[in-house]
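User: Hey, quick favor. My workstation is busy. Could you predict this chain's structure for me?
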Amino acid sequence: MASDPAVKTGFWTNYEPDGKYSESYLWTVSEIWGTIFKVLLGVAFGIAWPWAKVILQRTWLWFTLSWPWLKRKWKDLWYGSGSHDEEEPLLERPPEQQDQSPKRRGLMRWIPVEKADLVLAVITALVAFLYAVAGGAVGEIPADTLGRTYTPKSACGPWDLKRDVDRRVKDFDKLVLAQKEARAAAYGRDCYGSHSVYTPGRCDFFESPQIEYTVEKVDCPFKCLEDRCICATGSYETALRLSTGSFSADKLGLNGRDLPFIRRTSTFVPLDINNGFVVETGKLEYRYDLGPVYTSEGYRNYTFDTWGIPFNWDIAAYSVSVYESTPFPEYDAWQPIKELARPENTYMTAIFISPCRIAYNGRCEDPIFLATDDLGDIGLPNKFYREDTRARVLIAIDEMEVCRQKDTDCYPPSESNPEFGIEYEFVRTALRRSSTFQSIENRLGEALVASESISDFESPQLDKEQWIIESQALFNTSLARLQFNMLDMATGNHPTGAAAGGFESAYENSTPAWAKRQMGRMCDNYKFHMSGPYTNISIPYAVALLLVPIVLFVLSRNTKAPLDDNDPPRIYGNYMVFDRIIWWICRGAKWARSIFSKGPSESQESRSQESQSQEAEPHDQSSSQA
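Assistant: No problem, here it is.
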């Protein structure tokens, strides 16, 4: 992105929905503090090096050099004392000491030179490996690049133009809307489609780079008679359906435990130009009777009209006009005829497309971008255009729903519902501003993919189903518009300062009164991928790394207390805390034996026998004294 929003630092919880929600606890800090934290961790690991070395050496003694002794103890525990092979020496000794009287054998013993080298090599390799892992962990401690926006509560929310403003302000606002539309179109092209040769970093900005959807051909969405159909190529598989299915608002950047779900579907279908809704009103003049419209000039009982020969116009472009029918009566500029009855709670857009002076390098049978007439008569061999001056019509039907639960409890975004919470209001507002109409309204002909390839009044041959390519591009733009709408509300994006051109006071925050009290909480929890001098530290990860030197310090402390056992191992020097823990684990084998080698009744019987023997001990002692 050209400019990132302000980043909010501090501790926060990142919720990731995947079946059920998983939480990650993060600490967002500036890059300088992140570097200082990693340096401190590195210093702590360096200080802990001697302790780690001692622990690893003692581990080697316990589990490698004492293996014969441990094997003897294990046999004593499971099979009784004296069951080991007396012929097999428990510990290695130098040959000159073999004939000496037996002594209590210890862990520290004579080691041949080749074995000493092996021990040193193994310890060195193990320490190096563990510290390499720890060093890598310290270097990779930033959890990810997700960050939260910092937006003043007064600015958070959607901003719209006030009513009853003069014409100059409306013209300025159209320019602002055109820029937002172009921004979404560029993102849709570069991050959804494959038409761009660039790999911009903008695709890494949002929490999810794109919203996945499916594409399929479906039957004509309008009622067709037996002898004719208003859809261009009949009733069977003549429309294109693009659907996201149900996805969590987390993909739009919202951060929370119980977020609503969104379902977004668009159906595109070209109309049959010869169906009868086009009426010739004069020479090269046509009227389109698809329903009355309300324009800035007032009401008219037809939808659209054309005149003249577009190919004679000295402009290499596409002439495009759009009209929309919505669930809001006050904004319902177009009222479709009954043959184009709009499904309830949907948005319908009529797109009228006509090529101007464009010569195609190949024929095209597409119902919208038809080009089958030869231009050889005017000195342009192997060039084609459309002689028919009537504009073609592409219809888009948008279905939008916000669900409180996945695929259940779904509602259209037409009305506010305070009882559903601020998350629902956020998603509802962003969704209803992402229709197909709002993806082409201000750019018109420039919004078409076909217009990008025009050069010097010529165009390469278009695809035989160019209308499908255009439909997908518009759907990509609408999804990108949905993502940017959420960002604009979270940051309170609206013209301010010099960018407002003196019209800053003409905009107002249109957040409902009930929602303004909660908007600050919502805007602070919008997340995006940071590219500035900030970093995230995973709190559990950092705590675990900080505990490593502390644990090593405690385990390496010397203790003068005995191990409290009849036959403890002999280790030169004082016992460490680590030794006591290992010895406690070894003694636990006695408890394991009582569980696995005896039944419950046998164990109880043995305990009663032990108690009886303990009661008899004083009597035996007194007898011996006597």
